[in-house]
Amino acid sequence: MKIRKGLLVLMAATTLLTSCLKETDRVLEPFAAITNFSVGNFKVWYHDINIHGRDTLISRLESGNMYPMTIDQHKYKIYNLDSISYGAKLDRVLITVESTGYLYIRKNRADGTTIDSIWSSGDSVDLSKPVTFIAVSEDLKHKREYEVKLNVHKIHPDSVTWSKADTVGYKALKEQVSVIKNDSIFLFGKDESGVPVFIARSIEKNTEWAAPVQIAGIDSEKWNNNIILYNGGFYMLQDDVLYTSANGKDWTASSTTERFKYLISTSNSEYSEGVCWALNTTGKIVKSADMVNWEAYQDIPESFPKKNISLCCYPLKSNPQILRTVLVGLTDDALFSKASVWTRLSTDDEWTEITPSSTNDKLLPAKGGLTMMYYDKDLYAFGNGFNAFYQSKDNGITWRDCSLFNNEYSSWNIYMKFPVELNNKLTKFSSVTDSNNVIWIMTESGQVWRGGINRLMK
């Protein structure tokens, strides 16, 4: 028993001596590096409407965990790849930093000089501008200076940016119409001599318009700018006869015996019911899957639009297997009234008019050159004059003028506006939306504009 106690005492003494020797003789590490950096919570300020109907600033709290930080150990930079929300207040933010050795932060003095102070984890930091952290090794022989810079959205994500696209080679064609095929814009119309031509360009930036190509196989005196794209082919009408072209240049009469008053485009959406719609000369709405065999769908209602028809097709949010089609256009007497709006589901038997009600004063006005597009999961329409985009969030029932401040600020995009150079301009135009979510506007006055919602454009 005594021997065991002696051994225990000896072992304890040995352990204590070894511990003291390790503490005294510990080698100071030569490493200097920041190994982890994360941002705490911060406020994001944005506009909304208060209970009195007035514009006010309110805030929401965002977590820095939404924006992981990247540490570049070669360039000594720390940053976030995903930009922080527009309106973020970052002048007092708590952060977490892990490093080898000692850690300092560089602070600005009142006289304009700087001082490196020991970093304390309880301090808040002004990250609205770049900040320098310094890691120093334990042996004081090595150090690394890291620049910390947060990437923040500089513009509101819902705002629209416009730029004049490259117009090299652009010809301001008359009676024009434009479609997109294989990520190229085809603009059809008449040149200054009245000859039907088309010009084309890629949707990519810094691309020139190709030289005009004269159209063959149609009568220039019977030019009809009701041109659509269906299943990769171009189609147009001449004296109620359907003409087709694979390349936009060479046109021939189709073999169908059907005669038409108007073709309705189905090429403005990635979704389709697999059919093309048209109005024939016998007063029927007809449809076809091959542009040769046509089926009468229903009689053309008296109030059905006869010109400037735009159609958008997209899946229901509640059931993506069912497609909704919304159609807008002008009737013969619609010049100073409201546009005609129709809708149908892929499961419906007929087109149904969205008729105005006594409680609905938010109707789509009739405008020359009326154009509709499905954009950012809503419907937008506009026309000659470029006064405003009209937005519908309920599938064409109500339409809001995006240029007017309203009491539903959070759910309607009041940032959807045209460039000031287009405002109130009555020039005729054509428009397409490309696969990069860019809206193109080509005018007969010689302008080409490209723009869109910032968070959508690629």
Largest sheet, order of strands side by side? 4-5-12-11-8-9
SS content category? mainly beta
Proportion of beta-strand residues: 35-45%
CATH topology of the largest domain: Neuraminidase
Count of discrete alpha- or pi-helical segments spanning 4 or more residues = 1
- Shape, per Cα inertia axes: elongated
State the major sheet: 6 strands, mixed
Total number of strands: 36
Rg from C-alpha positions? Answer: 33 Å
Helix content range: under 10%
Distance between the termini: 82 Å
Q: Can you tell me the number of structural domains?
A: 2
Low-confidence stretches: 1-21
The CATH architecture of the largest domain can be named as 6 Propeller
CATH top level assignment of the largest domain:
Mainly Beta
CATH H level, superfamily name of the largest domain: TolB, C-terminal domain
Average pLDDT level: 88
Please, could you describe this protein's structure?
The protein is mostly beta strands and 458 residues long. It folds into two domains: 117 residues, Immunoglobulin-like; 294 residues, Neuraminidase (6 Propeller), CATH 2.120.10. The protein is 5% helix and 41% strand. The strands form nine sheets. A six-stranded mixed beta sheet has the order 4-5-12-11-8-9, with no helix packed on it. Strands 13-36-35-34 form a four-stranded antiparallel beta sheet, with no helix packed on it. Strands 14-15-16-17 form a four-stranded antiparallel beta sheet, with no helix packed on it. β11 and β12 form a beta hairpin. The longest helix is centred in the first third of the chain and has 24 residues.
